[in-house]
Amino acid sequence: MKKGTNDKEQFIFANEGVADVHNGRKGRFIAQIKIVYPKSLTDEQKELLEKLQNSFGIDSKPHKSVFESCFEKVKEWFN
Predict the structure, then answer these.
(1) 42 DSSP 8-state letter
(2) Quick one: which H or E segment has residue 59?
(3) Kind and range of the H or E element at 66?
(4) Whole-angstrom Cα distance, residue 9 to residue 19?
(5) Domain for residue 2, yes or no?
(6) Nearest to 63 by CA among 51, 77, 53, 78
(7) Which segments within 1-79 are labelled E, that is strand?
(8) pTM
(9) Is the pLDDT at 16 greater than 90, yes or no?
């Protein structure tokens, strides 16, 4: 699987599928990716994911910085 593979993305492998009963040639083998996310995490897993997220820097949370700057401006209106 390549880096950045998405859920339901398909990979097609020529000549890797089931053989044709008449001529013996193999068809295409199509594999579809299914990403399954865990329903719960341990405290250690949550901490590790948070560390990973923080390692990406502020660019990985653009919505947060925009929200915080807007919220700060709104708070200034009432001071």
Answers:
(1) -
(2) none
(3) helix 62-77
(4) 24
(5) no
(6) 53
(7) 10-13, 29-32
(8) 0.50
(9) yes
